[in-house]
Design a protein that fits this description.
Number of helices: 20
Shape: globular
Strand content: under 5%
Distance between the termini: 31 Å
Number of domains: 1
Radius of gyration: 22 Å
Oligomer: single chain
Structural class: mainly alpha
């Protein structure tokens, strides 16, 4: 294995070029028909284009919630250039290669250049990323902004600290998980101040950047929408999905059915704010009535997030309305596999199942390496503030998932940010280059 990894690292530039070529072929050849959240985001952007406005417009006042306003507005801008799904995939491709660049730069700073090269190799062989290329989710955009923010933070100069804070604000404008990054930075500042017995002032420039972004972005939405909004308002509905009689820890739309906790008789008569209040009240009432059950759901939410990994591989293989968990249940229950994998031959089904098994084995291998890498880092007690921010962000983000609802897609940004730990541990054990964390 050592010789193979060393050989692949030595050819990393060519592998990246091949990776780009393969994804361009996917964009040209794939049938880009969205479903689920991908379709919802696409339709929101199309509505804005038709109205000649940015998101949200007055027509979105009575939606169930506002979602990823920065991402939707980014879609509006790129679709103005060329209004097609292929344009979004090209945008995703740019995001992926910017992520490769900044992930390499950040990992080089935190660990070593060799670790960074191996991290990129692991990233490339992680097939959910090419699957996300063909879809329209927030994960690639969100991950890039987080990586950029932490990288800018590494320079520790006022200008870069303000820019880092500005990008922290941008993460919040994409997904509420961005608050976990800000919380991690605050916690590190408090710890550093207590340890040094003096107030660490540099972090205030980060907060200034975050405040400026929220003020500017929220102000622009206020001018367009009449309300100061700067982030998703999906928290209440996600809280309710994870706190009702039918909750399983995973996403379950039953909560919105008639007679269920989230059913609204006349949804068009309520604004997104009123719906949010309704969802939150119902969720809090259920939690108060079933505190033990709600607590017991928390590990199930983590299991649904980290326990399996078909974020987008089924979609990549051409099966857009299923996932490996559903297919697995059908196989073990003796159900109709043709329903889950329609228009496929026996060979096609075998290829699908083998591919998903292999990709899951690779995922579990990486997850195990990540855990070993984190454990080894903590054991050395030679802590790095940036590494700690990554770890605390991932912890807080996971706690937010445990409070709301779990799904494999939600872990993607955290999983990629933790890949350097897997690369560092693997290369250290195989003695590939300088793989130890820098001595501070």
């Amino acid at each position: 294995m050592k010789k193979l990894i060393e050989y692949l690292i030595s050819k990393i530039k060519y592998i990246v070029i091949i990776y780009a070529a393969v994804q361009l072929i996917l964009i040209v050849s794939a049938d880009l028909n969205y479903n689920s959240d991908s379709l919802y985001y696409y339709n929101l952007a199309q509505e804005c284009l038709e109205q000649g406005e940015f998101y949200p417009t007055q027509s979105h006042l009575y939606e169930d919630y506002l979602v990823a306003p920065l991402y939707i507005n980014a879609l509006v801008l790129i679709l103005k250039i060329n209004n097609s799904a292929a344009t979004i995939s090209v945008f995703n491709l740019i995001l992926i290669f910017l992520e490769i660049f900044f992930l390499f730069k950040l990992t080089s700073k935190l660990f070593s250049a060799k670790t960074a090269q191996l991290t990129i190799l692991l990233f490339i062989f992680y097939l959910n990323t090419p699957g996300l290329l063909l879809q329209n989710y927030t994960e690639l955009f969100f991950l890039l902004i987080i990586t950029l923010s932490i990288y800018l933070l590494s320079f520790q100069k006022i200008f870069y600290l303000i820019l880092s804070g500005f990008t922290v604000g941008a993460t919040i404008a994409v997904r509420p998980l961005g608050w976990a990054l800000l919380a991690a930075i605050v916690l590190i500042q408090i710890y550093s101040s207590v340890k040094s017995k003096k107030l660490i002032l540099n972090s205030f420039f980060i907060y200034l950047g975050t405040f400026l972004f929220i003020l500017l972005f929220g102000g622009l939405i206020f001018l367009n929408f009449g309300k100061f909004e700067y982030t998703s308002t999906t928290g209440p509905v996600n809280l309710l999905i994870g706190a009702n009689d039918d909750a399983t820890g995973a996403f379950n739309s039953k909560v919105h059915e008639k007679g269920k906790a989230g059913f609204i008789d006349n949804p068009d008569s309520l604004t997104f704010e009123q719906k949010g209040e309704f969802y939150q009240q119902r969720a809090i009432y259920w939690i108060e009535e079933h505190p033990v059950k709600w607590v017991l759901l928390a590990p199930l939410k983590l299991m649904h997030t980290y326990g399996w990994d078909d974020i987008s591989i089924s979609y990549l293989l051409g099966y857009k309305n299923t996932n490996f968990a559903r297919v697995g249940l059908v196989i073990f229950s003796g159900g109709n596999l043709d329903k889950e994998l329609p228009n496929s031959t026996k060979l096609g089904k075998v290829v699908y199942i083998i591919t998903l098994i292999l990709t899951h084995l690779f995922y579990y291998f990486l997850l195990l390496l990540i855990l070993f890498g984190i454990y080894e880092y903590l054991q050395k007690r030679n802590y790095d503030s940036l590494i700690n921010i990554i770890l605390i962000f991932c912890f807080f983000a996971s706690v937010m998932i445990m409070i709301t609802v779990g799904t494999p897609r939600y872990k993607y940004p955290m999983f990629i940010l933790l890949l350097p730990f897997a690369a560092n541990y693997l290369a250290a054990k195989l003695k590939i280059g300088e793989m130890n964390v820098k001595q501070k």
